[in-house]
Specification:
Blueprint (H helix, E strand, L loop, with lengths): L17 E8 L5 E8 L5 E11 L2 E22 L6 E12 L3 E7 L6 E10 L4 E3 L2 E5 L7 E3 L6 E16 L5 E16 L6 E9 L3 E9 L1
Parallel strand pairs: 9-14
Antiparallel strand pairs: 1-2, 3-4, 4-5, 4-6, 4-7, 7-8, 7-9, 10-11, 11-12, 11-13, 13-14
């Protein structure tokens, strides 16, 4: 349209997310068509969420990359992975575009197995729920990942049957994904990975997640 005068007689109401085609006409009657993608940004980009034993307590921690319209978080726990109760409310940052680290301590965790999750609540009341993390205070052996640091291979053992393994780099990007049939001992090839710090997340039966960290030499 070469910089001609643009005139519009239309007012567009808010539209749902999707791909739209818009035809515009300048003062000389020349038409042009453009495609517009409308996408509502996610309220919170959650890079990391974990819960683990810390002496006689449970430490719950999470990291966000961005937050939009974020009011607060609710940390919840459960003894069976189904019925959850509130542990603590943590104020959100509202709007941010930098990394923020959060953590709380559950000073009176359940004996035996506990399950933790995170609820994120917007200012308009919309709610997002994280994956579930298991913490075990019983006598059951915990999972392990070794060696750490590692060269080309790590070995993973878990009391939960492992179905999926996801590896993320320090920026939270998914760099490796593999799938299994409820195995308890797994050998994982990390040779293609660059040297650095990684987070490994497993998904087992009943959508229970366990998280490990390791260093690739």
């Amino acid at each position: 349209m070469n910089g001609g005068l643009f005139q519009s007689s239309n007012v567009f109401a808010c539209q749902p997310d999707g791909l739209y085609t818009l035809t515009i006409m300048d003062a000389n009657g020349c038409k042009d068509t453009i495609t517009i993608l409308l996408a509502t940004p996610l309220p919170v980009e959650l890079l990391y969420f974990n819960a683990f034993k810390y002496n006689e307590q449970v430490k719950v921690e999470w990291v966000t990359a961005t937050e939009i319209n974020n009011d607060y978080y609710i940390v919840e726990r459960s003894s069976d992975g189904t019925d959850f109760e509130m542990v603590e409310v943590v104020p959100g940052a509202g709007n941010s575009n930098f990394l923020i680290n959060y953590f709380i301590f559950d000073k009176d965790p359940f004996s035996g197995k506990s399950y933790y999750r995170l609820k994120q609540v917007d200012f308009d009341g919309a709610i997002k729920i994280s994956q579930v993390i298991k913490v075990d205070f019983g006598f059951e052996l915990a999972g392990s990942l070794f060696p750490n640091p590692a060269d080309n291979v790590v070995f993973l053992t878990s009391v939960e049957g492992i179905e999926d393994v996801f590896i993320y780099d320090v920026a939270g990007r998914l760099v490796s994904e593999s799938h299994y049939s409820s195995l308890h001992d797994i050998k994982i090839d990390i040779a293609p990975l660059s040297s650095g710090f990684y987070t490994l997340k497993t998904k087992g039966a009943h959508d229970i997640y366990e998280i490990y960290s390791f260093v690739k030499k």
